[in-house]
């Protein structure tokens, strides 16, 4: 790491940052930018697997899924430190403690540089384990899997220290800038991968694109971070043992959740590949991918509340934390339940159109979608706890549940010769028990909220609102059972109109409706409302 001439320079940028104690960015802007990037990820998730299946075949698509499952273990070496950077950057910014900020960031970077080296070593070990893990595949596919794992491991290891830069941006609530970088990376990566497949390059070549994209994105993040956070200096003189221990203590709690979810999803993928083969894994992974997109969609939404919660916790605003938990979760249900309805009712036609009839597994998709509904809707409860640094117990519970789920899946596949449905059931039980039930109960107890009152506040309205939407989707599925395109198109179009009308009149606050109306009228040159706040602002400016 480059040396700084004097650590006291951290104070030099104080006048360049916002007023202490105030959030840095708009929650809505951060959420929308996160969703915008994830739409690109979803597009890539639809395009790349379909192209691999077309040019390389179903077995090599399974190899691609298998390689990503292995590489998921390398990401655990982040040790949850990035979440610690996010939280402590927000906290020290709220307190205007620039030296503390530099100590936290540089200590975290030192940890993750060690993790980078361990990731490379671990990747070599995974490389050697590939032949034993997919012994049912032919020798050519095993060779491709090894090269793919090699490249993906390099990219995943590089992401570890670069994660510190991302933590600085999110701690400053500049998700919009981080997501702009991610969006460019996703778009360019997808374009290059598609081109390489057309040129006859294989799966391993696609993995090399992932490494190159991560290198370029890292360089851009370095430049952006220095502009967003002027007081930040990179110097080994800021690395302190106490801060390293503090970052590891906080991050360790987050890492437990990472271990749990890696065990829950990636280990089950490996079990499917081992007992049922890469071709079956390719089918199962397509159902799981749709649910994982929904999960990532909701994590993008909920993660922006970590620094917000950190600000409130630093100011000991318990009432603000209660309000944040309830309102973020209620909104989470309004977002999640329509997504779950689409996946459960029209997910099968979607897979049919996307990948073809050989990849259909409607029961598996419906079980996974419904099993994740409560957990996805309440993702923000974990984010609030993380901002408060009280997420240790929930993470530990997720580890226990994931271990139980993996054991059940292993028994179902190995002893009872079960299939994909048994795996989906084991995963759904674990996710509902922990993320959908125990974590929200823990958050309510911590903030002294009635859990039953909390449920009434966050569930009842969204559940009633989704019923007409789900009814329209179901009707479209019944009317066109053998036409996936018609059932999907008509269901989404007509259901979308119903849902939009409901949300406009009964869900969206009146003030937000008025703001939207004013912006629309202003854009198209229409007359402004008599109650528009714009003239009021002008009067105040004139008065001054």
Provide the fold topology.
Layout: H1 27-55, H2 58-71, H3 81-94, H4 98-133, H5 139-171, H6 175-198, H7 203-228, H8 241-276, H9 278-303, H10 305-314, H11 318-355, H12 362-377, H13 379-387, H14 392-414, H15 420-446, H16 451-479, H17 484-507, H18 510-523, H19 533-543
Provide a short characterization of the protein structure.
This protein has helices spanning 27-55, 58-71, 81-94, 98-133, 139-171, 175-198, 203-228, 241-276, 278-303, 305-314, 318-355, 362-377, 379-387, 392-414, 420-446, 451-479, 484-507, 510-523, 533-543. The chain is mainly alpha-helical and 544 residues long.
Please give a structural write-up.
This protein is an all-alpha fold and 544 residues long. It folds into three domains: 215 residues, no CATH class; 228 residues, no CATH class; 34 residues, no CATH class. The protein has 19 helices and no strands. The relative contact order is 0.10.
